[in-house]
Amino acid sequence: METKDYLKILRDEIHSAVIATVDGQGHPAARVIDIMLADDNSLYFITAKGKAFYKQLMDDPYVAISGMCGGEGSMNKKAISIQGRARNIGSQKLLEVFRENPYMAQIYPSQESRMALEVFQVDEGQGEFFDLSAKPVFRDTFVLGDRTKADRIPGGYRITDQCRGCGKCALTCPQNCIDISVRPAVIHQEHCLHCGNCLAVCSYGAVEKR
């Protein structure tokens, strides 16, 4: 899937996500915010100018966003996380926000009451998709804005040429996503949980963080 597909899941299937910022004392602050709009390479949310959230965004535009959808207590879950920059675009797209999210009119019923609202666009950053409903689990990374997949910061683990082919890593992998038929063994990143078992058990120092 492409970035636009993951952003559509975030907007339509998850919709309410946790957005984290940093306050004036350097402490983390988080709240649940609805994702109002999404296009091919960015997403949009709103907040009121009088909120602490607004001030934090204006002082430091970098945010971490995380949301999950799926049945409670089930494995049929999808999660998306994004780290990026939120840009204030004022009242741009505010009409579209209310058109696409009619429930907002119950909270801000008049044009006068909507004067407090401004729109923020996350148009630069990196995201990760995680699907627990797949067997084995599936994960993917994506980028927002003008960046390309080559700009992504990799996560997880890799196996280097120090590998001796002993197979300990594969025995401890909960998703069986390490191929030991080749040397060095290969971790299939799209199924990796990033649990670190392989790093912990390797006797040869062959596993390293990506």
UniProtKB/TrEMBL annotation:
Give the matching InterPro entries.
4Fe4S_Fe-S-bd, 4Fe4S_Fe_S_CS, PSI_iron-sulfur_center, Pyridox_Oxase_N, Split_barrel_FMN-bd
Task: State a single Gene Ontology molecular function.
Answer: 4 iron, 4 sulfur cluster binding
Record's keyword annotation contains Ubl conjugation:
no
List UniProt keywords, sorted A-Z. 4Fe-4S, Iron, Iron-sulfur, Metal-binding
Cofactors per UniProt?
[4Fe-4S] cluster
* UniProt domain 4Fe-4S ferredoxin-type: residue ranges: 155-183, 184-210
| PANTHER family for the chain | PHOTOSYSTEM I IRON-SULFUR CENTER, PHOTOSYSTEM I IRON-SULFUR CENTER-RELATED
Q: What does this protein do?
A: Ferredoxins are iron-sulfur proteins that transfer electrons in a wide variety of metabolic reactions.
Q: What is this protein called?
A: Ferredoxin
